[in-house]
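Hi V.,

Quick status before I head out on leave. The structure for the redesign project is tokenized and pasted below; the design run finished overnight.
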């Protein structure tokens, strides 16, 4: 009898772990708009070409290890991870280095094609279209390949504690389970805010498999508990990207607004933010510039921009604090975790949240749902953050001490 669900298949290299949450991640992040031709190209490249090399940094007496994988490779996130983990000399770590050019690898290709052949007939018994079947075959094969490459580090020495950057990443979700099979106590860092009300519906919380979930703040803890993460699993420790404290240096008012756009998928919300920026700038004799999310192409919103009030900063690369120093306040949507950065840096901001009903988030009244509310907030200066709000969203300025204390208990 045919298997009707991919959840019923026992794939090679996954027989000893529970892959249900991993499959949930793949199902909910599958992009049906990617063409069959593109899926085929990605499949071919994933089998025969290396894009990354992994670096293993170790010291003889270390019993803790941390991993960052290449599945969701982003320069800003890997920089956060490196800056963070280098502060803790008692950690070994493994991270990818992106190659300047894809490199053909015959050995890799043969090994992965062998895995594909073994598992393809199983996948054929699942009712799904060819494009989606190719997607699952490609990604599950890559997860298996990643597992084989990472397991060698556990044979070098015995580790008692393993931490991953993000266990809602399928590579690291699998790796956490492998470590737990080896009696290694595990944790996952928090890498963003997957609000239950947001685009990914709390995916980061719902699919976590680590023993401890290292939260940025009390706000994240509440969101995680809404998604049924056990309270005892959540450790509130602060924001890793501020392992070294940062402060703004604002010298004068500039008459400029910074507009922070959300992920590529939130097209309508991003358009509305730009429309609000056009109107509020004209109403208050201001100018604005755009800060694009890394998933955006940086030109898809050009037609919505009013050039009379727009400052073109194309090609400028800057940190969040540098962006804040160049603006009096920011407008931000619901689809980015950068509100935490703005609160940490005490940058005035207003957040667009069309479904906001009031009283949903601790201590903050700097939301708007339409232009009238936005205009009123700007005129009343309703965009500043109190100390209570800071500690609710940011926990501490001494992030290093907070994590040191947690790691010492292990």
């Amino acid at each position: 009898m045919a298997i009707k669900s991919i959840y019923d298949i026992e794939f090679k290299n996954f027989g000893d772990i529970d892959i249900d949450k991993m499959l949930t991640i793949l199902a909910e992040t599958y992009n049906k708009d990617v063409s069959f031709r593109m899926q085929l190209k990605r499949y071919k490249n994933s089998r025969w070409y290396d894009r990354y090399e992994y670096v293993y940094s170790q010291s003889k007496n270390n019993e803790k290890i941390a991993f960052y994988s290449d599945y969701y490779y982003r320069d800003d996130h890997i920089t956060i991870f490196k800056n963070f983990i280098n502060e803790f000399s008692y950690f070994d770590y493994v991270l990818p280095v992106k190659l300047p050019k894809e490199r053909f690898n015959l050995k890799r290709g043969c090994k992965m094609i062998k895995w594909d052949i073994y598992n393809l007939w199983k996948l054929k018994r699942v009712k799904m279209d060819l494009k989606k079947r190719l997607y699952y075959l490609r990604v599950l094969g890559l997860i298996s390949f990643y597992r084989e490459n990472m397991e060698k580090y556990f044979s070098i020495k015995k580790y008692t504690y393993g931490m991953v950057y993000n266990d809602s990443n399928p590579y690291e979700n699998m790796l956490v389970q492998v470590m737990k099979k080896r009696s290694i106590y595990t944790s996952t860092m928090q890498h963003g805010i997957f609000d239950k009300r947001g685009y990914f519906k709390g995916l980061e919380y719902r699919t976590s498999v680590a023993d401890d979930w290292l939260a940025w703040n009390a706000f994240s803890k509440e969101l995680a508990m809404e998604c049924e993460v056990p309270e005892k699993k959540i450790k509130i420790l602060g924001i890793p990207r501020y392992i070294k404290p940062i402060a703004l240096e604002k010298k004068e008012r500039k008459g400029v607004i910074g507009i922070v756009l959300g992920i590529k998928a939130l097209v309508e919300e991003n358009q509305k933010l730009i429309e609000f920026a056009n109107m509020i700038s004209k109403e208050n004799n201001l100018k604005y510039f755009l800060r694009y999310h890394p998933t955006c192409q940086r030109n898809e919103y050009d037609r919505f921009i009013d050039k009379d009030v727009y400052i073109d900063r194309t090609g400028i690369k800057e940190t969040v604090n540098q962006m804040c120093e160049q603006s009096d306040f920011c407008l931000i949507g619901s689809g980015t975790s950068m509100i935490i950065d703005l609160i940490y840096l005490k940058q005035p901001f207003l957040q667009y949240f069309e479904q906001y009903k009031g009283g949903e988030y601790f201590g903050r009244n700097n939301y708007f749902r339409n232009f009238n509310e936005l205009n009123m907030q700007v005129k009343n200066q309703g965009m500043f953050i109190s100390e209570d709000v800071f500690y609710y969203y940011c926990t501490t300025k001494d992030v290093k001490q907070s994590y040191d204390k947690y790691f010492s208990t292990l």
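Above is the designed sequence. The chain has 14 helices and twelve strands.

G. will cover questions while I'm gone.

Best,
W.
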